[in-house]
Amino acid sequence: MGRRGGLTPSRSVRLRPGTASGLRRRGAGGFLRATACLSQDGRIVGLSILDGRTVDLMMVDPDHHRRGWGRHLLRHAEETLLARYSTIRLETFPDNAGAKSFYEACGWVLAERLEGEGPAKLVYTKSGTGD
Asked: What confidence tens digit (pLDDT) does each residue in 16-37 have?
């Protein structure tokens, strides 16, 4: 198995772009929309969805936590987005201590707290080198 999408997966885990509706595509207004899946033995163990300059969703199966797959998936998302945008963003819930620690350890910076309708969210940002 070779490099795919900027990652070098192990022999048993691979990254595959796409969903049932297609691979990378431009959404309304030319924004990037992309999905990446980490799979192992034919089972999806991680998923990221990018929308514009935002990591809209990122999940790793709890049975596969603390194995480096989240870091690989996030790095792939960062490389994809920072190739197009100088600053990128993601959101998480204030009570999600594990996610907050993970994003901060990966160099993301807390930018703001969103409150209003629905649950509060924290916005994290990351900028490309030289920004």
From this structure: 544 333 334 455 555 678 888 8
